[in-house]
User: Fold this.
Amino acid sequence: MATATPTVRDEYRLLIGETWVPGSAGTYDIVNPATEEVVAQAPEGSADDARAAAAAAKDAFESWSQTSPKERAELMRAVARRIHERADDLIPLVIAETGCTATVGKQMQVPVAASRFERYARGALEPSVIPLPPQEVPATALAPGGIMGAMARRAPVGVVACITPYNFPIVNMAGKIGPALAMGNTVVVKPAPQDPLAVIELVAILEEVGFPPGVVNVVTGSGPETGEALVDSPDVDMISFTGSTGVGIRIAEAAGATMKRLLLELGGKGAGIVREDADLENAIGQIGSVWSFHSGQICTAPTRAIVHRSRYEELVGGLTKMAGMLPVGDPLEKGTVVGPLISGAHRDRVEGYVGIGRDEGAEVVAGGGRPDMERGFYMRPTLLAECRNDMRVVREEIFGPVIVVIPYDDDDEAIAIANDSDFGLYDYVFTGDSAKGLAMSRKLRAGNVGINTVQRNHETPFGGTKLSGVGRDGGSFGLHAYSELQSVVWPG
Ligand code: NAD
Assistant:
């Protein structure tokens, strides 16, 4: 499978209705985080472009929402097939614009996007009617009595604006477009400014396999204008947003004015509780995924290691050893585990947190800065020990290859430390006692809990509590997120 230089278009465009148009505000550069070279130019869309896309999606809704689930499923399956067929050109493109390693690009970006379309092709065929027991009602001033039959059915919400972050561009977008289209919604797709090119290709695939004009539209831009215009647009019924908590809060405030439905998947600061009876080798490997998986640019990462004091030295020692063994460098090099961060600005931010941690009294026991490389936005795997829960490095999301370690003395204290966070996305318990692990999971205020693993089950409901967001997607729960219950009653 090819992973070298990506094939790029001379010009990328926006899809608005049935027409591919240049961005009204020109173009902007997409930069390869590993080389700092320009990959290609992306369209600089305007607020008017976003409004036109929303209007096109609104026009297409009436007929698309009446298509049969079978028809929608067939189109979705065709998308999955086409993604697989185009893997050889999509993988290098995703690697070039995101800076992810070849392994992550090959295993977890492109094929996962395809599997999401396969999953929601099946999802389109899931039952959308919930039968309800008939009810005997007396005659009232309203209407004659009798037996009232009833059902609830899942109806599409309408036009969904899908706004996504930079870390897994096509996977994240596929996770929104798939269930939204399966339920009969139309969409406007707004990928992250840093890496929109593969998402534009994905939309081209949807058009190519036969989604009718207006059902899928794409707008891009280097700033917040296009996203803001979608949030404000009266033509948009729902915002499905994945991104930072700060932007999520702004969206929730603005969307209230038009009472939009919201699915908000926001930031995280995952607690990884390591009990005294934990298999330390496993715990170290799993927590070390903060470094080894996409340079820690993962919302669900166990970035707060909360470890029983009796195993503290062992855990810090083990993680320090692991940090020193992970090859940092060119994502295309075989063997590279830690690639670059998305941008120079983001690396500055992550490095800034290391300085803040030092000033707050944390001990930098591994990493802490850049490797010796001429180009690229690299950062070494970093371990901050001797941390306390009042430190900013413990409370705020860093979104980079940085783990903080906090010791505890008993289970209740571990839970209290884990829950003393603004976030509640994904927590983990590492223990040799599965009953204890389950009991602790019940006390954790997080949308998701992993026991002895950071691996996923994609059928589970996914989402956050507290400032980590509102709503759930994943598996069939994704179908629920992109539909509204409509009740229908009739005299029996
Ligand atoms: P971001 O919030 O900066 O940007 C996300 C998207 O929002 C981008 O497309 C951006 O252009 C758009 N946007 C910015 N301002 C907007 C506005 N005012 N109105 C509408 N749209 C606007 O996030 P990022 O830096 O791309 O991604 C990192 C963040 O995403 C982290 O906080 C991470 O935890 C979070 N994330 C969460 C999940 C999850 O499932 N919970 C998954 C991946 C990433």
